[in-house]
Amino acid sequence: MELKSFIMSLILLLASTTYGLEITSTGPTSIEKASGETVKMDCQFTLAPEDSGPLDIEWNLLASDNQKEDEVIIMYSGDRAYEDYRPAMKGRVHFNSADPKNGDASISLTSLQSSDTGTYECKVKKAPGIRSRKMLLTVMVKPSKPSCYTVGPSYEGKDVQLKCVSAEGTNPMQYTWEKTSDSKVLPPTAVLDSTGSTLSVRNASASASGTYRCTAKNRVGMEQCSLDLRITPSPNRAGVIAGAVIGVLLALLLIALILFCCCRARNKKKYEKEMSYEIREDVPPPKSRVSTARSFTSVGSQRSSVGSMSPSNLHEYTLKTQYDKIPSEEYEHPPSHAPAPLPARMAGPNLSRMGAVPVMVPAQNRDGSIV
Q: A GO CC term (predicted)?
């Protein structure tokens, strides 16, 4: 590549010494602009009588990498301008002159973007003459409005930091702090960091209170922000600690009270449940009307049968009733209230001796009528 550049330079040198084509622009070859602005890149030229070939003007954006090709951005050839070579610059690049063949090959690039940064070359050819001129364009982003805030407690005797940060902006960026209230002089204990974006006020006192302004600046613009700093007396640490301890104790007491109430309610519910079970076991089942009626019927029939029965067959009746009797409520009572059972065997003389009176039972036929 170095050999190629040497050959091209030699050719241009020979052409310039032999033929009269010259580029007369003497403006700066390095330009810095802010994004969004418009830049004019000059390329004025003169022709000689011996330059009789067709005029060709070509602007290229040179590749930063030698492995890549240069990119054409605008061209003038055959009395016609061609502007739509690079899509990213479509509609933003134009020739300044309506007829560049009159000696003005300058161009204007509008609405600059950071991607427009690079080296541009103006090449003018009119056979047999050929000339070129290079310019470096740097598109910078001006600082955005910075944000001002403090770091750390603003108490007397403490270190307070004032921060200033701009989210956007091309480096190198510079930050400066100034006090705009009272004496307009920074506190004697104020220290700036290497970039100037942080102002540290050590062992702050009440005199450090006031309004501060930060300015963010680079070569293409500047922005500012302000903040009010108020240094207050340090709080009573003992009171804060005591309040925290009391708060913790009250919280523990409240938790203990809630747990106590829950346990008490649970034990009470458990006790009521156990008492209900005991009451159900002690209370006898309710009386049944059917059982009562049946018991009275059974007792009446037994009495009738006993009354109509002779002493001779009383023993058989007694044994039979022990197996044929119908359960009634009388047998559900405790043993102390139950009637004493009759002896298993009792002879007729024993009944007479006890005061029993013989009863004559009328005879009955099969259908139950008295004979």
A: basolateral plasma membrane
Q: Does one domain contain both 12 and 117?
A: yes
Report whether 137 contacts 117 (CB < 8 A).
yes
Residue 75: domain span:
2-140
Nearest to 98 by CA among 90, 106, 86: 106
pLDDT at 258: 92
* Measured distance CA(105)–CA(172) in Å, rounded: 33
pTM of the shown model: 0.52
Residue 192 has phi, psi (to 5 degrees) of: -100, 145
Spatial CA neighbour of 214 closest among 132, 123, 149, 170? 149
Helix (H, G, I), strand (E, B) or coil at 336: helix
The Cα–Cα gap between 197 and 192 comes to 7
In contact, 49 and 157? CB cutoff 8 Å: no
Domain end, chosen from 194, 229, 264, is at 229
The enclosing H or E element of 130 equals strand 129-140
In the three-class reduction of DSSP (H, G, I as helix; E, B as strand; rest coil), residue 63 is classed as: coil
The total number of structural domains in the chain stands at 3
Confidence at 15, pLDDT banded by 50, 70, 90: very low
Report the pLDDT value the prediction gives residue 166, as an integer from 0 to 100.
94
How does pLDDT run across 296-309, given as a tens digit for each residue? Answer: 444 444 444 444 45
DSSP class of 164: E
Within a domain: 249: no
Instruction: Check whether 290 has a pLDDT greater than 50.
Output: no
- According to the per-residue pLDDT averaged within each range, which of 1-5, 36-40, 52-56, 281-285 is highest? 36-40
Whether 108 and 96 have beta carbons less than 8 Å apart is answered as yes
Single residue among 122, 140, 158 that ends a domain in this structure? 140
Q: CA angle at residue 67 from 62 to 69, to 5 degrees?
A: 40
Prior bond of 128 cis (ω within 30°): yes
